[in-house]
Amino acid sequence: MSHGWRQAHLPPGVTHRVMLVRHGETDASMKGRCYGKLDVPLSTEGVSQVKKTAQLIAPLQPTFIVSSPRIRALDSAEIIAHRCQLSVSVNEQFAELDFGDLEGERYEDVEAEHPKFFAQWMSNPTQVTFPNGESYQSMAERVVMGYDALLQNNRDAKCVLVAHGGVIRIILAHVLELDAGNVFRLDQSYAGISCIDYYESTPVLRVMNWLG
Questions:
Q1: Which of 13, 68, 190, 193 has its CA 20 to 30 A from that of 80?
Q2: 82, 54 in Cβ contact below 8 A?
Q3: How many Cβ atoms are within 10 Å of 6's Cβ, its own excluded?
Q4: % helix, strand, coil for the chain, step of 5
Q5: Which of 1, 56, 5, 3 minimizes the C-alpha distance to 197?
Q6: Domains identified in the chain, total number
Q7: What predicted TM-score, i.e. pTM, was given to this entire model?
């Protein structure tokens, strides 16, 4: 991987940049549970992770920061914003998947109480709709709509978008033109940075899950 992109000034020909950042690790009490819409705080380790990420991003001199409204993402964004001396804009379109009635439920309990649904979910995660929640397709539509608007409205900018693993996978799949069925091949580390440079309308993924 070339390190030439790690400069405050954009490489020649690059018109704008988006840095996707997953929030830091969350509180251990939610491990093994479904949570998307639920507001789950960062763990102590998660705060530490994001502080390190902020140190990596600051020298790249982003021009603005956008965040999911969920507290784990918003708190992560505020840590980065403080380091970069910027403010944070919140965009609902970058929220994580809404698990509906399953929010807060343990995976093992979902499997025991809804075995057929759980089997479908595990075998075809992008093909199910959560009861009183979202489907992957509906989430992908709102995320891509939000991302495309972000690009259109912020030419010549260096944006940091702080969101969730699911949101970032959708954006990367959109950029790389991957089928929805392959989206989970894209690993997302807590506080990892994925950088996309645009040559006008042509995207180039510089790095994924950069942790320094």
A1: 13
A2: yes
A3: 13
A4: 45, 20, 35
A5: 5
A6: 1
A7: 0.95
Reference 95, options 37, 56, 47, 48; nearest CA is: 37
Give a yes or no: residue 4 inside a domain. Answer: no
Q: Is residue 123 part of a domain?
A: no
- The answer to whether 57 and 193 are in contact (CB under 8 A) is yes
N-term to C-term CA, the chain: 13
Residue 126 lies in a domain: no
Reported as a single tens digit per residue, the pLDDT across 166-194 is 999 999 999 999 999 899 999 999 999 99
Residue 63 neighbours by CB under 8 Å, 6+ apart? 86, 157, 158, 159
Question: What is the rounded distance in angstroms from the CA atom of residue 209 to the CA atom of residue 190?
Answer: 8
Q: Which domain holds residue 32?
A: 16-98+134-210
Residue whose token pair is 């784990």:
72
| Ranges assigned E (strand) in 70-201 | 88-90, 158-163, 193-199
The amino acid occupying position 17 is R
Could you give the CA distance from residue 57 to residue 81 in angstroms, rounded to a whole number? 10
**Position 200 in a domain:** yes
DSSP per-residue string spanning 68-86:
-SSHHHHHHHHHHHHHHT-
pLDDT at 3: 65
pLDDT digit string, tens, across residues 54-103: 999 999 999 999 999 999 999 999 999 999 999 999 999 999 999 999 99
- 87 contacts 65 by C-beta, under 8 angstroms: yes
